[in-house]
Amino acid sequence: MQIELLKVFCDIVETQSFSRAAARNYISQSAVSQQVRSLEVRYGRRLIERGKGSIAPTPAGEILLRGAREILERFQQVDDELQNFGQSTAGNLRVATVYSVGLHELPPFLTQFLRTHPQSRIQLEYDRSARIYDAVASGAIDLGIVAYPTRRAGIEIMPFRRDRLVLIAAPENPLARGKEIEVAQLKGARFVAFERDVPTRRAVDRILGAHDAEVEIVMEFDNIETIKRAVEINAGVSIVPLLTVRAEVRARTLRALPFAGDGHFRELGLLVRRGRTRPPILDRFIELLQRRSRGPASEGATPKRPLARRTAKSSEG
Predict the structure, then answer these.
(1) First-to-last CA distance in the chain?
(2) pLDDT(88) > 90
């Protein structure tokens, strides 16, 4: 049996999707279905049950899943040791992050790392926070980057950076006047929000609640790019990290107002699997992320597009 067959099976269960498992392994969806059928023929029993909007392993599939994960983890350890023999940073690095971080914050880090480590390859995926935690815990990815990190069993959290949160509004919106704004001024405002399961949404709700600033939620989206487009047409205002709206502010399609006082920030964290021996490529990348993030959180050059292979998903975490 090929090791890739076990990986495809694990990816189907982890992503809850045949199409996402296909994209992750750079094969067609029909090829994924064929591989599952070949496993079921081999063991003479059904391994995966498909329901309405859900995919779950059968009891037999659970046995295969546990064994496959152990095999893949051990294979990855051996592969990492051989790829990085002699402390070389050659090899693959699998990184998953929420959309806004991957698009607006990681590109300068990726550009510098790939320039100084040309034998390295970085596979960057965008996903929701909950799935990133699961992927780190299972060993499907090497490094996760999320907003407002929370403790999870088997996962080590390291600090990354603090993003300054700002109010964004269309230039013609009355709240766009002035150089800064008080949170209390947002009371009653039409507000474009992240969906409720997004950590940044929960943090923004806490900020508004602490200042008795109840807003009117007019739209909810799962990604920051759609939020910006809605605010540009003056559907409402929103609160987002400053780094994610630099281009729109320069183009004058949005205004970004800092909050009075010390302001508010979005905390970002790095996730790695606890207890796993980290390959040199991962340690070097983490060192770069933490070293370059010690300056002011709201400062930095305009990011360039990353020189990395990406699997895009239009969701935020």
Answers:
(1) 36
(2) no
